[in-house]
Structures are given as C-alpha cells and as structure tokens.
Amino acid sequence: MADSTSRFILTSPAFQDGGALPKAHVHSAMGAAGDNRSPALQWSGAPAGTQSFAVTCYDPDAPTGSGWWHWVVHGLPADCTGLPEGAGSGGALPAGAVQGRTDFGSEGYGGAAPPPGDEPHRYIFTVYALKVPRLDVPADATAAMVGFNIHFAKLGQASITALYGR
Length: 166
Hints:
Layout: E1 9-11, E2 41-44, E3 52-59, E4 68-77, E5 82-83, E6 98-99, E7 121-130, H1 143-153, E8 154-164
Antiparallel strand pairs: 1-2, 2-5, 3-4, 3-7, 4-6, 7-8
C-alpha cells in the first residue's frame, strides 16, 4: 500500500478525465453501436490498510430520476492495481472478484447508451479502497446495495469521468 503522502488516483489509457468515451466502451444494444468492452483502468496510491477494491461506473445524467449503474465489481484483491480492457465484458477478472447486477439487469459491464439527442452524459468510473477483504452482499445484489456496503467499508476513492452522447 502507499504511504501517507501518496495520492489515490485512477487513470485509463482509453480516455483522459473529462474526455470522450471511445466507441469500444459504448454499448452494443439499445440503439448504440459500440463494442461494449470495459475500459482498462489503473490505480495507485491506495490508502494504508486497504484489504480489497471495488470498481463502479455510474451515469448520473440518465433520465431515470436515479441515474444508471453501468458496472459494479468488488472483491478485487488488495494487490490489484488495475483491470485490463474487457475485464468486465467476459474478460478475466482477478480470482475472487465478483461482478454485481447493473441497471441493465445483469452482471458485467454495460457500456454507454444515452438517449439520442441528450447532452453528453457523464460516465464516472470510481475505484474504492476498502477496509474489508470482501463485501457481505448476496450474489444477486443490486448496484445500490453494493454501493451502500461500499460506503461503510470505504477507506478512500478515486474517480475519472468520460463523456458520451449521440
């Protein structure tokens, strides 16, 4: 783990913070025409005492009244420093990692698919450093339930945001 002077940061080789989400990470359904692959993510500077990580992708601009959860993965081991492209789309996740149910109704990464004509939506990717080795949630837990448990186990978090509209 990082020392107390380190800053917890999250980056992606696919996009810069505040930049456009590439087509590779856009959904392949719901009228969108992407490849629906989760982006590669890397993090560093996790707080001391981190026992596991969780990663989420959330769109607060979805016209639902409550946003839209695109990805939830938890149980990432404490020595994990990132995920390769496609890890949430059928790719290999580290042993013990669990993908939660998203607002698409299934587990795994679901890419951007905002309504045509909307202003570009924000897709906020967040990594959470957790003080527990595993979240105590059922296998079919909703993203909101996982998020609730993350809130109480969180030591720190780092986020990056991508934009996408059509």
